[in-house]
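Exercise 7. Given the encoded structure of a 341-residue chain, write a plausible sequence.
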Protein backbone atom coordinates (compact mmCIF):
# COMPACT_ATOMS: atom_id res chain seq x y z
CA UNK A 1 0.00 0.00 0.00
CA UNK A 2 2.80 2.44 0.82
CA UNK A 3 5.73 3.02 -1.52
CA UNK A 4 9.10 2.99 0.22
CA UNK A 5 11.56 3.09 -2.69
CA UNK A 6 12.28 6.81 -2.26
CA UNK A 7 11.88 6.90 1.51
CA UNK A 8 14.74 8.29 3.58
CA UNK A 9 15.23 7.15 7.18
CA UNK A 10 16.32 9.93 9.51
CA UNK A 11 16.67 9.58 13.27
CA UNK A 12 16.33 6.20 14.98
CA UNK A 13 16.13 5.49 18.70
CA UNK A 14 15.89 2.20 20.58
CA UNK A 15 14.31 1.68 24.01
CA UNK A 16 13.82 -1.56 25.93
CA UNK A 17 10.36 -1.84 27.51
CA UNK A 18 9.42 -4.18 30.35
CA UNK A 19 6.61 -4.58 32.85
CA UNK A 20 7.28 -1.15 34.37
CA UNK A 21 9.79 1.67 34.02
CA UNK A 22 12.13 0.16 36.60
CA UNK A 23 12.47 -2.92 34.37
CA UNK A 24 12.89 -0.84 31.20
CA UNK A 25 15.72 1.05 29.55
CA UNK A 26 14.69 4.49 28.34
CA UNK A 27 17.50 5.59 26.05
CA UNK A 28 18.97 8.99 25.28
CA UNK A 29 21.05 7.68 22.38
CA UNK A 30 19.82 8.92 19.02
CA UNK A 31 21.39 7.43 15.89
CA UNK A 32 21.22 8.31 12.21
CA UNK A 33 21.50 6.11 9.15
CA UNK A 34 25.12 6.14 7.98
CA UNK A 35 24.88 5.17 4.28
CA UNK A 36 22.71 3.77 1.49
CA UNK A 37 23.19 0.17 2.62
CA UNK A 38 21.85 0.97 6.08
CA UNK A 39 19.00 2.98 4.58
CA UNK A 40 18.03 -0.01 2.42
CA UNK A 41 18.22 -2.37 5.40
CA UNK A 42 16.02 -0.21 7.59
CA UNK A 43 13.52 0.33 4.76
CA UNK A 44 13.19 -3.45 4.52
CA UNK A 45 12.78 -3.91 8.28
CA UNK A 46 10.60 -0.88 9.02
CA UNK A 47 8.59 -0.11 5.86
CA UNK A 48 8.29 -3.30 3.79
CA UNK A 49 5.90 -4.96 6.31
CA UNK A 50 3.33 -2.26 5.44
CA UNK A 51 3.69 -2.51 1.67
CA UNK A 52 0.71 -4.86 1.22
CA UNK A 53 -1.61 -3.41 3.88
CA UNK A 54 -5.03 -2.54 2.51
CA UNK A 55 -6.67 -1.05 5.61
CA UNK A 56 -6.04 2.41 6.98
CA UNK A 57 -6.89 3.95 10.35
CA UNK A 58 -6.81 7.30 12.09
CA UNK A 59 -6.39 8.37 15.70
CA UNK A 60 -9.57 8.51 17.77
CA UNK A 61 -10.78 9.15 21.32
CA UNK A 62 -14.31 8.97 22.77
CA UNK A 63 -13.98 12.38 24.46
CA UNK A 64 -11.81 14.33 22.06
CA UNK A 65 -8.75 13.83 19.89
CA UNK A 66 -6.66 16.06 22.16
CA UNK A 67 -7.01 13.36 24.84
CA UNK A 68 -5.34 10.72 22.64
CA UNK A 69 -1.83 10.51 24.10
CA UNK A 70 -0.06 9.03 21.09
CA UNK A 71 -1.68 11.51 18.70
CA UNK A 72 -0.52 14.43 20.85
CA UNK A 73 3.05 13.10 21.03
CA UNK A 74 3.15 12.34 17.29
CA UNK A 75 1.97 15.88 16.59
CA UNK A 76 4.88 17.25 18.62
CA UNK A 77 7.29 15.18 16.51
CA UNK A 78 5.62 16.50 13.36
CA UNK A 79 6.12 20.03 14.74
CA UNK A 80 9.85 19.26 15.10
CA UNK A 81 9.94 19.20 18.89
CA UNK A 82 12.82 17.22 20.45
CA UNK A 83 12.58 13.70 18.99
CA UNK A 84 14.51 12.01 21.79
CA UNK A 85 12.27 13.47 24.52
CA UNK A 86 9.06 12.68 22.63
CA UNK A 87 10.23 9.12 21.96
CA UNK A 88 10.87 8.68 25.68
CA UNK A 89 7.35 9.93 26.40
CA UNK A 90 5.95 7.44 23.85
CA UNK A 91 7.90 4.60 25.52
CA UNK A 92 6.54 5.60 28.93
CA UNK A 93 3.02 5.77 27.51
CA UNK A 94 3.42 2.21 26.18
CA UNK A 95 4.72 0.99 29.53
CA UNK A 96 1.80 2.63 31.34
CA UNK A 97 -0.78 0.67 29.30
CA UNK A 98 1.16 -2.63 29.30
CA UNK A 99 -0.40 -4.10 32.44
CA UNK A 100 -1.77 -7.41 31.16
CA UNK A 101 0.23 -10.46 32.39
CA UNK A 102 0.50 -11.82 28.84
CA UNK A 103 2.36 -8.76 27.57
CA UNK A 104 5.98 -9.49 26.72
CA UNK A 105 8.96 -7.21 27.14
CA UNK A 106 10.72 -6.18 23.97
CA UNK A 107 12.84 -3.81 21.93
CA UNK A 108 10.99 -0.62 20.99
CA UNK A 109 12.33 1.17 17.92
CA UNK A 110 11.14 4.55 16.71
CA UNK A 111 12.19 6.08 13.42
CA UNK A 112 11.46 9.20 11.42
CA UNK A 113 11.04 9.08 7.64
CA UNK A 114 10.84 11.45 4.72
CA UNK A 115 9.23 10.78 1.32
CA UNK A 116 7.03 7.78 2.16
CA UNK A 117 4.69 7.31 -0.81
CA UNK A 118 0.96 6.89 -0.34
CA UNK A 119 -1.56 7.40 -3.11
CA UNK A 120 0.00 9.93 -5.44
CA UNK A 121 1.85 11.93 -2.76
CA UNK A 122 4.81 11.61 -0.41
CA UNK A 123 4.75 12.28 3.31
CA UNK A 124 6.88 12.52 6.39
CA UNK A 125 6.20 9.64 8.76
CA UNK A 126 6.88 8.18 12.20
CA UNK A 127 7.28 4.45 12.75
CA UNK A 128 6.97 2.72 16.14
CA UNK A 129 7.98 -0.96 16.31
CA UNK A 130 8.01 -3.50 19.10
CA UNK A 131 10.06 -6.68 18.62
CA UNK A 132 9.27 -9.23 21.31
CA UNK A 133 11.20 -12.23 19.93
CA UNK A 134 14.47 -12.63 18.08
CA UNK A 135 15.82 -15.05 15.48
CA UNK A 136 18.99 -17.08 15.91
CA UNK A 137 21.73 -16.66 13.32
CA UNK A 138 25.38 -17.55 12.84
CA UNK A 139 27.95 -14.77 12.83
CA UNK A 140 31.13 -15.91 11.07
CA UNK A 141 34.64 -14.44 11.05
CA UNK A 142 38.15 -15.42 9.97
CA UNK A 143 41.69 -14.50 10.98
CA UNK A 144 44.71 -15.97 9.22
CA UNK A 145 43.98 -19.68 8.87
CA UNK A 146 41.31 -19.69 11.60
CA UNK A 147 37.59 -19.38 11.03
CA UNK A 148 34.97 -18.96 13.73
CA UNK A 149 31.23 -18.78 14.08
CA UNK A 150 29.12 -17.53 16.94
CA UNK A 151 25.43 -18.18 17.57
CA UNK A 152 23.67 -14.86 18.07
CA UNK A 153 20.12 -13.53 18.21
CA UNK A 154 18.79 -10.59 16.24
CA UNK A 155 15.82 -9.11 14.38
CA UNK A 156 17.18 -8.67 10.86
CA UNK A 157 14.89 -11.27 9.31
CA UNK A 158 11.87 -10.73 11.54
CA UNK A 159 8.80 -8.61 11.10
CA UNK A 160 7.85 -6.56 14.17
CA UNK A 161 5.39 -8.22 16.52
CA UNK A 162 3.58 -4.91 16.85
CA UNK A 163 3.97 -1.69 14.91
CA UNK A 164 2.25 1.48 13.82
CA UNK A 165 3.29 3.67 10.92
CA UNK A 166 1.98 7.22 11.24
CA UNK A 167 1.83 9.11 7.95
CA UNK A 168 1.63 12.82 8.53
CA UNK A 169 -1.28 13.42 6.19
CA UNK A 170 -3.96 15.87 7.29
CA UNK A 171 -4.90 15.41 10.94
CA UNK A 172 -5.76 13.06 12.54
CA UNK A 173 -3.11 11.46 10.28
CA UNK A 174 -3.19 8.12 8.48
CA UNK A 175 -2.19 4.96 10.35
CA UNK A 176 -1.12 1.47 9.31
CA UNK A 177 -1.17 -1.04 12.15
CA UNK A 178 0.53 -4.39 12.76
CA UNK A 179 -0.54 -6.57 15.68
CA UNK A 180 0.45 -10.23 15.39
CA UNK A 181 -1.40 -11.32 18.54
CA UNK A 182 -4.49 -9.09 18.86
CA UNK A 183 -6.54 -11.77 20.63
CA UNK A 184 -4.03 -12.25 23.45
CA UNK A 185 -3.86 -8.63 24.48
CA UNK A 186 -5.70 -5.56 23.22
CA UNK A 187 -3.41 -2.94 24.67
CA UNK A 188 -1.50 -2.11 21.46
CA UNK A 189 -4.53 -1.07 19.43
CA UNK A 190 -7.09 -0.10 22.07
CA UNK A 191 -4.92 1.52 24.73
CA UNK A 192 -1.62 2.53 23.16
CA UNK A 193 -2.83 3.74 19.74
CA UNK A 194 -6.63 4.21 20.05
CA UNK A 195 -7.81 4.28 16.44
CA UNK A 196 -10.77 3.81 14.13
CA UNK A 197 -11.07 3.03 10.40
CA UNK A 198 -10.26 6.04 8.23
CA UNK A 199 -12.74 7.33 5.69
CA UNK A 200 -10.32 7.46 2.76
CA UNK A 201 -9.88 6.02 -0.72
CA UNK A 202 -8.38 2.78 0.63
CA UNK A 203 -11.29 1.84 2.88
CA UNK A 204 -13.82 3.34 0.44
CA UNK A 205 -12.58 0.90 -2.21
CA UNK A 206 -12.81 -2.03 0.22
CA UNK A 207 -16.27 -1.01 1.42
CA UNK A 208 -17.91 -0.45 -1.98
CA UNK A 209 -16.54 -3.72 -3.36
CA UNK A 210 -17.73 -5.54 -0.24
CA UNK A 211 -21.20 -3.99 -0.43
CA UNK A 212 -21.50 -4.87 -4.12
CA UNK A 213 -20.43 -8.46 -3.48
CA UNK A 214 -22.97 -8.87 -0.67
CA UNK A 215 -25.74 -7.39 -2.82
CA UNK A 216 -24.97 -9.68 -5.75
CA UNK A 217 -24.52 -12.91 -3.78
CA UNK A 218 -27.13 -12.44 -1.04
CA UNK A 219 -29.76 -9.89 -2.07
CA UNK A 220 -30.21 -10.34 -5.82
CA UNK A 221 -31.22 -14.06 -5.61
CA UNK A 222 -33.96 -13.14 -3.12
CA UNK A 223 -35.65 -10.51 -5.29
CA UNK A 224 -34.84 -11.56 -8.88
CA UNK A 225 -34.81 -14.80 -10.81
CA UNK A 226 -31.15 -15.10 -11.75
CA UNK A 227 -28.83 -18.00 -12.48
CA UNK A 228 -25.45 -18.55 -10.90
CA UNK A 229 -23.94 -17.55 -14.23
CA UNK A 230 -25.79 -14.23 -14.02
CA UNK A 231 -24.45 -13.63 -10.52
CA UNK A 232 -20.92 -14.39 -11.66
CA UNK A 233 -21.39 -11.95 -14.53
CA UNK A 234 -22.37 -9.20 -12.05
CA UNK A 235 -19.34 -10.02 -9.90
CA UNK A 236 -17.02 -9.93 -12.91
CA UNK A 237 -18.41 -6.58 -14.05
CA UNK A 238 -17.91 -5.16 -10.55
CA UNK A 239 -14.27 -6.22 -10.39
CA UNK A 240 -13.66 -5.11 -13.98
CA UNK A 241 -14.97 -1.63 -13.17
CA UNK A 242 -12.49 -1.20 -10.32
CA UNK A 243 -9.61 -2.66 -12.32
CA UNK A 244 -10.14 -0.37 -15.30
CA UNK A 245 -10.96 2.94 -13.63
CA UNK A 246 -8.69 5.28 -11.68
CA UNK A 247 -11.59 6.96 -9.89
CA UNK A 248 -14.88 5.62 -8.59
CA UNK A 249 -18.08 7.40 -9.54
CA UNK A 250 -21.19 6.00 -7.91
CA UNK A 251 -23.64 6.57 -10.80
CA UNK A 252 -21.13 5.39 -13.38
CA UNK A 253 -20.49 2.20 -11.38
CA UNK A 254 -24.22 1.46 -11.02
CA UNK A 255 -24.87 1.98 -14.74
CA UNK A 256 -21.92 -0.16 -15.89
CA UNK A 257 -22.54 -3.04 -13.47
CA UNK A 258 -26.33 -3.28 -13.01
CA UNK A 259 -27.64 -1.55 -16.18
CA UNK A 260 -31.37 -1.55 -15.33
CA UNK A 261 -33.08 1.17 -13.27
CA UNK A 262 -35.01 -1.31 -11.13
CA UNK A 263 -31.88 -3.19 -10.11
CA UNK A 264 -29.98 0.05 -9.54
CA UNK A 265 -32.70 1.22 -7.16
CA UNK A 266 -32.53 -2.14 -5.35
CA UNK A 267 -28.77 -1.74 -5.00
CA UNK A 268 -29.17 1.78 -3.62
CA UNK A 269 -31.64 0.58 -0.97
CA UNK A 270 -29.35 -2.29 0.01
CA UNK A 271 -26.32 0.03 0.01
CA UNK A 272 -28.05 2.56 2.30
CA UNK A 273 -29.23 -0.12 4.72
CA UNK A 274 -25.83 -1.88 4.80
CA UNK A 275 -23.98 1.35 5.53
CA UNK A 276 -26.34 2.29 8.35
CA UNK A 277 -26.19 -1.15 9.97
CA UNK A 278 -22.37 -1.27 9.80
CA UNK A 279 -21.66 2.44 10.47
CA UNK A 280 -19.83 2.83 7.15
CA UNK A 281 -19.22 6.17 5.44
CA UNK A 282 -18.34 6.10 1.74
CA UNK A 283 -17.88 9.03 -0.61
CA UNK A 284 -19.75 9.12 -3.95
CA UNK A 285 -16.45 9.67 -5.76
CA UNK A 286 -12.92 8.69 -4.73
CA UNK A 287 -9.57 7.54 -6.08
CA UNK A 288 -9.52 3.75 -6.44
CA UNK A 289 -6.87 1.83 -4.48
CA UNK A 290 -5.56 -0.83 -6.84
CA UNK A 291 -3.88 -2.69 -3.98
CA UNK A 292 -7.31 -3.01 -2.32
CA UNK A 293 -8.85 -4.12 -5.61
CA UNK A 294 -6.23 -6.82 -6.00
CA UNK A 295 -6.96 -8.17 -2.53
CA UNK A 296 -10.75 -7.94 -2.80
CA UNK A 297 -10.82 -9.58 -6.23
CA UNK A 298 -9.64 -12.84 -4.66
CA UNK A 299 -12.99 -13.30 -2.91
CA UNK A 300 -15.09 -12.48 -5.99
CA UNK A 301 -15.62 -16.08 -7.05
CA UNK A 302 -16.10 -16.60 -10.78
CA UNK A 303 -16.50 -20.38 -10.59
CA UNK A 304 -19.72 -22.11 -11.59
CA UNK A 305 -19.86 -25.49 -9.83
CA UNK A 306 -22.01 -28.17 -11.48
CA UNK A 307 -22.66 -31.13 -9.17
CA UNK A 308 -19.28 -32.77 -8.51
CA UNK A 309 -18.42 -33.19 -12.16
CA UNK A 310 -17.52 -29.77 -13.55
CA UNK A 311 -16.18 -26.37 -12.55
CA UNK A 312 -16.65 -23.61 -15.14
CA UNK A 313 -14.55 -20.46 -14.75
CA UNK A 314 -16.41 -17.49 -16.20
CA UNK A 315 -14.27 -14.45 -16.92
CA UNK A 316 -15.82 -12.88 -19.99
CA UNK A 317 -18.92 -12.43 -22.10
CA UNK A 318 -22.04 -13.76 -20.36
CA UNK A 319 -23.84 -14.00 -23.72
CA UNK A 320 -21.59 -16.90 -24.74
CA UNK A 321 -23.25 -19.15 -22.13
CA UNK A 322 -26.78 -20.50 -22.47
CA UNK A 323 -28.71 -22.47 -19.87
CA UNK A 324 -31.49 -24.93 -20.57
CA UNK A 325 -33.26 -28.20 -19.77
CA UNK A 326 -33.44 -31.14 -22.20
CA UNK A 327 -36.43 -33.41 -22.89
CA UNK A 328 -35.43 -35.74 -20.07
CA UNK A 329 -35.31 -32.95 -17.51
CA UNK A 330 -31.54 -32.71 -17.33
CA UNK A 331 -30.12 -29.22 -16.85
CA UNK A 332 -27.35 -28.06 -19.14
CA UNK A 333 -25.14 -25.11 -20.09
CA UNK A 334 -24.21 -24.47 -23.71
CA UNK A 335 -20.86 -22.68 -24.11
CA UNK A 336 -19.73 -20.93 -27.31
CA UNK A 337 -16.04 -20.36 -28.06
CA UNK A 338 -13.63 -19.75 -30.92
CA UNK A 339 -10.33 -21.24 -29.77
CA UNK A 340 -9.26 -24.05 -27.49
CA UNK A 341 -6.03 -23.81 -25.47
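Solution.
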Amino acid sequence: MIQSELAIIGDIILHRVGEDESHSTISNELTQVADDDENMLFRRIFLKPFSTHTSTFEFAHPVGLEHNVLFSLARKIFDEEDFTEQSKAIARHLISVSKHPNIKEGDLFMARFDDVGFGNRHYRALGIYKFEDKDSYLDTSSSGRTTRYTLKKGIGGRKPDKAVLILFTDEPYTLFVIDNSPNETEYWQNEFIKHKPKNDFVNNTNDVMGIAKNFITEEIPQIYQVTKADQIDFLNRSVEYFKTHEKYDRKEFEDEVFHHDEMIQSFRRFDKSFREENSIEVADTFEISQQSVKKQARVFKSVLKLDKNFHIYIHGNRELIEQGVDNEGRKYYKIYYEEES
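Remark. Residues 8-197 form one domain. Students should compare their own answers with the one above.
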